[in-house]
User: Fold this.
Amino acid sequence: MDMEALSVSRLNTNKDCEFKYFLQYHVKLPELRNPTIYTDKGVAVHEVLELYANGDKDYEKNLINYYCKSRLWELDQRDPAKGGFPHPQVKTCETCKWNDNGFCKIAKEAATSFIGCPRPNFEDDLELAAKVVNREGEADILSRKILGAEVEFDEIVEGVRIKGVIDLVTEVDEETLEIIDYKTGRHSKGNAALQKDPQVRVYSVIAKRLWPQYKFRMMTLDYLRKTTVSAMFSDEDDELTIQSIKRHNTDIKENVTPSPAGREFWLCKFCIGHERCTQMYV
Assistant:
């Protein structure tokens, strides 16, 4: 299959199911590529935290601006049984603190002019953002020296082009940096699973190239609904990661007959394209 560059999301998708990769990146099924309420809620939190790290501290205002622009509360959430809020949410303007005489301060327009209520999703995202910006002591990562927020990279690693975006890079001390990736979903990984996680392993390889002045590089997944998990990787670990990157890159490019997983596993129920799986691959 054709591929301009490898990314962590591409790598993870192919690792989970090569047929989903085929549907998402090769066939480009709209169901798998169009925004959903889940993806947009994640983007909303990431955007306000990026602005905060870059000096704009009014995260409530910025979250309102994102909601007003995206109208994400009107997006179909596919299957409410999988969690989150049913769609659309019933309006409760009479008792809503965001209502100003019929004017919705979240949507920035009359409450009668749009479908559903943005309040539950908005307050859920606001709580996640507030959790980060109101941390104290060592947990307050945003009070450190910020090396970058939403850092884009495009690197060639032993012949393989890798592109991506890192949520936040901070300096812990003169010898140590920490890369933080915010996670807004309800699923989390433990420390053992983190050691095998392709995302943090790839970030470790990239960090060594982008910030070679730091001796130690800590990789952290910040699960905003739960906790944080961190790991550090040795030069030997990074070399193993590079070899894995090269194998995955070759596997994707040479795979002309991608096949379904062959069995249902837990990720299948979260795959929007799963209903097409048996229909398109006979």
